[in-house]
Specification:
The protein has about 170 residues and is an alpha/beta fold. It is built from six helices and six strands; from the N terminus they run E-E-E-H-E-H-H-H-E-H-E-H. A four-stranded parallel beta sheet has the order 4-1-5-6, with helices on both faces. A two-stranded antiparallel ribbon has the order 2-3. Helix 5 links the parallel strand 5 and strand 6. The longest helix is centred in the N-terminal third of the chain and has 10 residues. The radius of gyration is 15 Å and the shape is globular. The relative contact order is 0.22.
């Protein structure tokens, strides 16, 4: 069974922080989207690069790709097709955005539950050392928690790290 590659959208694939400065990052296209919950006001601006789709498809030979994003199944409608990905399974979070007293990210426990002992790599812009420590203490399999800068998104070195880790 392949290790999981758990993929967040906002930060890794959509370097949303870069919207605050001009020009837009090279290789990205601005998309205006209206996922569930974004019906009022201006459309949600999302930066996407087709290069990310190519890189993820190359990793799919060695990983099982899974959305680990608040977009949940809507990632398959709004994001995947725009970067050339087929529909992917997703984590259906039981609850979202809860503040954890221990300082860990709200997704961390659910990611470990979803992995169910399988090795996994997880790319997200909210990962911290607290999350790495918690996963090391509570997940029996191998795990790579790769924090991605939301100003930059996934870069070539990140894909190299993921390819080497697996």
């Amino acid at each position: 069974m392949k290790p999981l590659l758990l993929i967040d959208i906002d930060g890794p694939l959509n370097p949303y922080a870069a919207l605050a400065r001009a020009p837009l990052p090279e290789g990205y296209t601005l998309h205006e989207m209206r996922p569930t919950g974004w019906k009022e006001g201006p459309a949600l601006p999302v930066l996407l690069s087709p290069v990310h789709g190519d890189e993820l498809l190359a990793l799919a030979a060695r990983y099982e790709l899974v959305w680990a994003t608040t977009w949940k199944d809507e990632a398959n409608e709004w994001v995947g097709p725009r970067i050339g990905l087929p529909p992917l399974p997703y984590i259906d979070w039981p609850a979202m955005h809860a503040v954890r007293e221990d300082g860990t990210y709200w997704k961390t426990r659910y990611v470990v539950d979803h992995a169910d002992g399988r090795p996994f790599a997880w790319v997200d812009d909210e990962i911290s050392d607290l999350d790495r420590s918690w996963v090391a203490a509570h997940h029996p399999g191998r795990a790579l928690l790769l924090r991605v800068d939301p100003w930059v998104g996934l870069v070539r070195e990140d894909f190299e790290t993921l390819a080497a880790w697996v």
